[in-house]
């Protein structure tokens, strides 16, 4: 089914870290959208997993996302799939909704590996970032060419809701106002 299904989703939040975010092009917008996704996941009881790349060097997850429910996986590999704890956290067949930094490094390598693992991967284009805009654009093209679905934050939120009669419609729709 092409539409996203909330009950079959998992949010994957990759490397939104304190020392990295100031260098990310349009980082405020990327972080805002990741926060919207994390809050919607909380409201809709969608599980999440967070990663931190070399937290001693890049610092912890930014405060705006640090409270996101779900396991926090520290890693040294750019590809989160190289960490057994990450693979354990995403075990099953949930569709994986991806946000994070950097699009052309940790996000890209993780997405490509997830595709090799035959997972349905949804990359939220306005919730991923890189230091250089061209790196982000090329990463999105490459991930799409290999089978990742490219969406926006609003697409995810409204597909998760499906209807204006959803009990969380008002709360989730407020996130994008």
The SSE string, one letter per element, is: EHEHHEHEHEHEHH
What is the number of E strands? 6
Radius of gyration using CA atoms only: 15 Å
Main sheet overview? 6 strands, parallel
Structural class, from helix and strand content? alpha/beta
As laid out across the biggest beta sheet, the strand order is: 3-2-1-4-5-6
Helicity range = 40-55%
What's the total helix number?
8
Q: Which CATH architecture would you pick?
A: 3-Layer(aba) Sandwich
CATH class: Alpha Beta
Shape verdict: globular
Number of domains: 1
Within the CATH hierarchy, at the fold level, what is the topology? Rossmann fold
N/C terminus separation: 29 Å
**Parts with pLDDT < 50 across at least 5 consecutive residues:** none
């Amino acid at each position: 089914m092409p539409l996203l299904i909330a009950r079959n989703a998992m949010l994957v939040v990759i490397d939104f870290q304190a020392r990295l975010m100031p260098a990310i092009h349009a980082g405020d917008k990327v972080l805002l959208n990741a926060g919207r996704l994390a809050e919607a996941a909380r409201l809709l009881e969608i599980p999440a997993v967070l990663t931190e790349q070399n937290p001693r060097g890049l610092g912890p997850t930014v405060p705006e996302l640090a409270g996101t429910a779900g396991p926090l996986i520290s890693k040294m590999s750019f590809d989160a799939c190289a960490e057994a704890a990450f693979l354990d956290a995403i075990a099953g067949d949930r569709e994986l909704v991806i946000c994070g930094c950097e699009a052309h490094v940790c996000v890209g390598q993780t997405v490509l590996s997830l595709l090799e693992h035959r997972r349905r991967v949804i990359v939220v284009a306005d919730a991923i970032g890189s230091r250089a805009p061209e790196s982000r654009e090329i990463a999105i093209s490459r991930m799409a060419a290999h089978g990742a679905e490219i969406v926006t934050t609003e697409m995810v939120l409204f597909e998760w809701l499906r209807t204006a009669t959803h009990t969380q419609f008002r709360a989730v729709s407020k996130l994008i106002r």
